[in-house]
Amino acid sequence: MSHILSPNASIAQETPLRKKLFFNPPAESTPAAASAEGSQVRAKARHINGLVSGATAANGTKKLSTHTPLSLGEKSPKKRSVVYLDDSDEERGVNGFVAPSPRGNDRKRQKTRKNLSNGVASRFDERPRISALQEQRAQLPIAQGREAIVRAIEANDVTIILGETGSGKTTQIPQYLLESNRISGQIAITQPRRVAATSLAARVSIEQGQPLGYIVGYAVRFDERTGPKTRVKYLTDGMLVREMMGDPLLEKYGVVVVDEAHERTLRTDLVLASLKKILLARNGKMEGKGKSKANANPLKVVVMSATLDAEKFSKFFNNANVLYVKGRQHPVNIYHTATSQNDYLDAALRTFFQIHVDQPSGDVLIFLPGQEDIESLESSITTYANQLPQSCPGVTLCPLYASLPNAQQSKVFTPAQSGTRKCILATNIAETSITIPGVKYVIDTGKQKQKRYIARDTGSGFDTLLTTDITKSSAMQRAGRAGREGKGYCFRLYTEEAFNNMALSLEPEIRRSSLTSSLLQLKCVGQDLETLDFMDKPEPESISAALRTLWMLSAIDNSKSLTNFGWSMAVFPLEPQHAAVLLASVNHRSTFEIISILSLLSSSAPLFPDSSSQRESAASARAKFRHVAGDHLTMLNVMLAYDELEKGERRDWCRRNFVNERALREATDIRAQLRDVCEKVGVDWKLGCQGEEGPILKSLVRGLVQNAAFLQPDGSYKQAMGPSIIKVHPGSSLADKKSAAIIYDELVYTTQIYARGTRFTLIMYRAAAARSIC
Ligand SMILES: Nc1ncnc2c1ncn2[C@@H]1O[C@H](COP(=O)(O)OP(=O)(O)OP(=O)(O)O)[C@@H](O)[C@H]1O
């Protein structure tokens, strides 16, 4: 993406950034600049993201001053202004509710915050903090409704709870249930994202004064911290679906709380539809309001969010009871730009520095659509932060996106280095549920990446990832990340009109993503996409594409029944195609190698990060790993070489070879877990082929046969089982080679459709296999 404020521009030499940016008086001043603090200096005035006036509002917050855009020197090709309009005449909560006056002593709370947990690590040894935490818990708005909430959940099969962001739903309701001693069995709380599940479990275990994994634990893919005494378990919705495979009626749970249900992820919808069936089986006739007749082990379902369509959810569960929790602990002032911004990165950069230079301490959370934007803004902020006057605090930057390894993700929860302001650059994984201690300001670009699956009636299809505008619901959730420990501020880089025109919520993921993996899991619990009662039915083409894929993998037979092979596939926490590869490797005696390759493919970080600034050095350093048969054997070479290293040598080795240590570390963990699963199901993972390519390629083809493409006269490839013309991704080691046919891992749609993870395989074998299926 082009970036107006190129980090390479030698601004400092030509025009002193500091002076122009922070100390030059504005050429013209807008007198009625509104304070970020709202009412005192608001008067429908504008906050213009420009040079800083130095004026300070009565409460100590400087005005976000007027007029001239950040002047970043001659090299900056454009100058823009970002204008904020305070959107209310009163201080109000994020969803338009009047905020309750903050209770308690703010300074005391600040002090307490320092002592609180801020990461996913357990801090059991800190008992004196517990009383402060109890005091804090008691001050949350939801605390007033504690007894009423427990009673409602007890009295009804299903309870829908709608409460503002930060009111205390996610951390408190499970604890109220636990402490009431009126609920038998475990309490599951599902989260759409793993970072939320792990950080919430850490926080709640500290509030309980227990080590993480004891009474309160979590379970996410490839990571679980629970024990025999665990009663409260935060888990991703995907994990709950997986648990149903072993426990179809979820009998170990007395309560299942589906949190952030408004997100309507595919797994959330699967959970909701399955719960409806489980309620019938465990509780008898579902009564909606009220509870069904006595049952030895009834299930209670709670559905929660700050921004859900309560009526729709209530209807889905036969007119279930809806509880509204009013109020949030701290208000959030929301500002919109006066004009729309074409370049959200530029606008975010300017807004960040305006806050950083002019506003009181407090960390900043910036929402961006994806990793690429995060890296670009990270580099711009670093460049300009280095040019700040010494008197100005430094900046600690923390990226946060899904493909960042867990250890890296949890860094956002640790306090900024002293004397610096923390700036978190996040995708929408930080949008719901989580509290990042210290965050006072949110900058919302209004953009997100949205996955869309393009199903082909041939059974092949691909996911596209496009940058789109967010929804109202996301905007509210993002604003809700501020104001969790004190008053917060949210700067939206879009106009109020744009906000008003936003869709209320996203189209449910079930209607726009691949259903293959879910269908396999459902088949294992005797359910089906075609018969389950979903809130919104999936598209028939997506169901047929999923059925066809499973049939091609031999996971189901002609009557759509699960085969033994399908059962075995579902045991592995892998995409069905990859599970088929793993099982095929047993026949081809290449499991040892295949597990390493699949671990790398499952790792969230790329093994070969794009290093555009050092492309040539990277290519020559990586050349020694290159395998003639393609990317996956190349990846295997890297992992085998990495395995040989002593621990102390690894970092330097990865740096010298331009490979991503994070990816390798994560893959090593995943590999250990896959080996564990193999041992449990009697697959000999030690069975290898000493790196011989034939057996490895035959195994890969078995799972990826749908991903074959044949060479066309113009050098592109055409899908064997789809109409798309695709190119080998420029990042592939085979980008400059031609083969009669290729197979690939995934198609990525940018300006054209690229095949990523490409390899030449046994061309004749693959081509024949693909054609016979066509
Ligand atoms: N890790 C943490 N560190 C400090 N305070 C926290 C932490 N987690 C929660 N809190 C405090 O507890 C409050 C309630 O958090 P909780 O996640 O339960 O709210 P919620 O109603 O579920 O919000 P949301 O809808 O945004 O998920 C927060 O506003 C914050 O004050």
From TrEMBL:
Record domain Helicase ATP-binding: where: 150-326
Top class in the EC scheme: hydrolase
Catalytic activity: ATP + H2O = ADP + phosphate + H(+)
Residues of the Helicase C-terminal domain: 348-526
EC number: 3.6.4.13
Residues covered by region (Disordered): 59-80, 92-122
Any GO BP annotation: positive regulation of transcription by RNA polymerase I
Residue ranges with Polar residues bias: 59-69
GO annotation, cellular component aspect: nucleolus; ribonucleoprotein complex
Keywords in alphabetical order: ATP-binding, Helicase, Hydrolase, Nucleotide-binding
Gene Ontology MF terms: ATP binding; double-stranded RNA binding; hydrolase activity; RNA helicase activity
InterPro entries: DEAD/DEAH_box_helicase_dom, DNA/RNA_helicase_DEAH_CS, HA2_WH, Helicase-assoc_dom, Helicase_ATP-bd, Helicase_C-like, P-loop_NTPase
Keyword presence, Nucleotide-binding: yes
Pfam families to which the protein is assigned, alphabetical: DEAD, HA2_C, Helicase_C, WHD_HA2
CDD domains referenced in this protein's UniProt entry, alphabetically: SF2_C_RHA
Entries under PANTHER family matching the protein: ATP-DEPENDENT RNA HELICASE (PTHR18934), ATP-DEPENDENT RNA HELICASE DHX33 (PTHR18934:SF118)
Family: Belongs to the DEAD box helicase family. DEAH subfamily.
Protein name, entry field: RNA helicase
Species: Bondarzewia mesenterica
Lineage, opening ranks: Eukaryota, Fungi, Dikarya, Basidiomycota, Agaricomycotina
